[in-house]
Amino acid sequence: MSETKMDQAIRNDAVSELQMDEPLVQGKKSKKKKKKLSPIQRLIKYVYKKRYTILVIVLILIGAFILYGNNFKKIYELKQQIVLLESGIVEEEEEAQRLKTELKNVEERSYIEKAAREKLGMVYPDEIIVTPVLEMEDSTQE
Fold first, then answer.
1. What is the DSSP letter of 27?
2. 8 vs 1, higher pLDDT
3. Residue 41 pLDDT more than 80?
4. How far apart are CA 109 and CA 76, in angstroms?
5. What is the C-alpha separation between 85 and 67, in angstroms, rounded?
6. In the chain, how long is the greatest CA-to-CA distance?
7. What one-character DSSP code corresponds to residue 126?
8. Are the beta carbons of 18 and 24 closer than 8 angstroms?
9. Sign of the CA dihedral 21, 22, 27, 32?
10. Fewer CB within 10 Å, N- or C-terminus of the chain?
């Protein structure tokens, strides 16, 4: 078979292109030079490849927040309530201690005597009570 000039020209162009490129070794593919990507470009490429995985993770996080968000709020409120109750316990323990000391004082004679004089107005039979009289000023004299 004879080749036409056109076929010969195409073959010659193909052969010259092969000679310009890296030589092909039998059984090995030619390696193309890859462009070096910036870190941002690599990140974008990674995110693009993993977009469905990232979407699923984001949806799971949103669902968890919706389901358990109210529980976190309740936990916070209950912790605040615990703090208030614990401070109330401390106050009540202090009050209980004060009442215990007062109870010990009530059993003493001097406390009973003081309470009878101040609260009930009682006196011993040989005592005389002196009360100061306040002079009232007439408003007409001024």
1. T
2. 8
3. yes
4. 52
5. 29
6. 158
7. T
8. yes
9. negative
10. N
The per-residue pLDDT for 141 is 54
Q: What is the pTM of this model?
A: 0.38
Token pair of 88, please?
Answer: 């109330």
**Residue 86 predicted with pLDDT over 80:** yes
Q: Answer whether 104's CB lies under 8 Å from 112's CB.
A: no
Could you tell me which of 7, 35, 30 has the C-alpha nearest to residue 18? 30
CA gyration radius for the chain? 51
Q: Which residue has the tokens 């690599």?
A: 42
Length of the chain: 142
For the CA atoms of 128, 132, 138, 142, what is the dihedral angle to 10 degrees?
Answer: 150
Spatial distance between the Cα atoms of 89 and 101, rounded to a whole number of angstroms: 19
Residue 22 has pLDDT above 70, yes or no: no
What are the sequence ranges of the domains in the chain?
35-120
The CA-to-CA distance between both ends of the chain, in Å, stands at 151
Which residue has better confidence, 25 or 119? 119
The amino acid that residue 18 corresponds to is L
Amino acid at 101: T
